[in-house]
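Researcher: Good morning. I'm working through a list of sequences from a screen, and I'd like to move beyond sequence-only analysis. For each chain I'm collecting a predicted structure so we can compare shapes side by side. This is the next one on the list. No need for commentary yet; just the structure.
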Amino acid sequence: QVQLVESGGGLVQAGGSLRLSCAASGRTFSGYAMGWFRQAPGKEREFVARIRWSGGNTYYTDSVNGRFTISRDNAKNTVYLQMNSLKPEDTAIYSCAADTNANTVRYYDPTRYDYWGQGTQVTVSS
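Model: Good morning. Structure tokens for this chain:
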């Protein structure tokens, strides 16, 4: 059984930084890709970033490109989202997700991800 557990959320002032972690367990993830999504109150779930466990390109939504960085530590089975220069509009519940198919067709579509964590709240005050 695949389990994803996020941590690292919290309250931060605008311009600050947070690092989210997603610890994965339950199987070998080498052929997977991992994504971060977020959902603000009253809004649809939004793609944030994606990375393959085996390396290669990373993908970001335009609004976070240059501010957020996704990375992974294969030895720890953990994916990170470093968030810098945070803005109030970044406030949301952030969830990590595992995609058992690492190809990049519609990588931003949450329906292609097979496993999800419970989410962690990020609140950015102005």
